[in-house]
Amino acid sequence: MSKRTLLVLVVALAAVLAVSGTALAKTYKIGVTVIVSHPALESDQEGFEKAIAEAGLEAEYDYQNAQGDMANATTIAQKFKNDNLDLVHAIATPTAQAAVKVIKNHPIVYSSVTDPVDAGLVKTMGPSGTNVTGISDAWPIERQIELYHQMLPSAKKWGTIYNAGDANSVKSISWTRDAMKKFGLELVEVTISNSAEVYTGAQTLVGRVDAIYITSDNTVVSALDSVVKVANNKKIPLFGGDTTTVEKGMIAAYGLNYFQVGYSAGKKAVLILKGQDPGTVPSGLTENLSLWLNLKAAKDQNVTVSEKYVKMAEKVFR
To answer: Rounded to whole angstroms, how far apart are CA atoms 277 and 75?
Structure first.
């Protein structure tokens, strides 16, 4: 066979495969940086990957976990800056902040960030004009507190635990204070700096509060079993806003579906991978809310949940 004939065959085969879509499709390289492991953030990434796959794109993911350490988050960002990546998915405020500060040469799509403007990721929720866009998971805290107050009207003092070093948590707690005040409730705050302090923090609330509300704090949620243990042992009703944690022992959460948060972020990533400038893709909000209940947790914490709320719930754990 002559070289000319071989070349013609190769070109013809490549054309056939390209038309059939069985070859020559690019595999995109995506770096994933997350501040800590817990169900909501894992669900976020699952939703992100679902959106990529549904768009018919092939992707290879490099998963990196900062283990709750900001220094690690910066190291991961430096790694991704130097890697041959098509895009970075930054999950949660601290890791997104590290990525945006360090990485200027790859598109960044953030998710599970409460206030991206306040966190310095973007200057506006519109098109950023930079390499950054994403999805905010700002919780409907006032609506949550109102519902929990209706469910448990006898609880006047509510305790909470959060990492004061996490800008996401500090913002959420400021909204929580405002909501508690609006409904005539008192908020007792306990601050921690790492997951090892969560159990002790929960214990300090015993005897001081009628119920506990956990906001969008990644450090606390990563050690939620410690809070559940105290709540069950001391019969303190436990509520939150992250539906993915209800199965672990919260009575109720009226909040976001974090799979949908990630899915929405993934759709923005698809636009970018298909050629759109990330600076022209506006940031967005997650709006779909649902109530999840855990009736076993309610029993463990000595609370009777009205049938009204059982009927209202999207998911009920018994």
So the answer is: 26
Residue 111, both tokens: 């998710």
Domain boundaries, the chain: 26-138+258-288, 141-256+290-317
Asked whether the whole model's pTM tops 0.70, one would answer: no
Q: What is the pLDDT of residue 33?
A: 98
| Long-range Cβ pairs for the range 94-99 (8 Å, 24+) | 94/35, 94/66, 94/70, 94/166, 94/167, 94/168, 94/218, 95/33, 95/34, 95/35, 95/66, 96/121, 96/134, 97/73, 97/121, 97/167, 98/33, 98/66, 98/70, 98/73, 98/74, 99/33, 99/73
Q: Is the CATH number 3.40.50.300 carried by domain 141-256+290-317?
A: no
Which of these ranges, 7-21, 53-67, 150-164, has the smallest mean pLDDT? 7-21
Longest dimension (CA), the chain: 89
Look at strands 211-214 and 315-317 and give their pairing: unpaired
CA–CA separation, 65 vs 68, rounded Å? 8
CA distances from 188 to 145, 181, 221 (A): 14, 12, 18
Q: Given this structure, which CATH class describes domain 26-138+258-288?
A: alpha beta
For residues 216-231, average pLDDT: 93
Give the helix/strand (H/E) hosting 307. helix 307-312
pLDDT of residue 40: 85
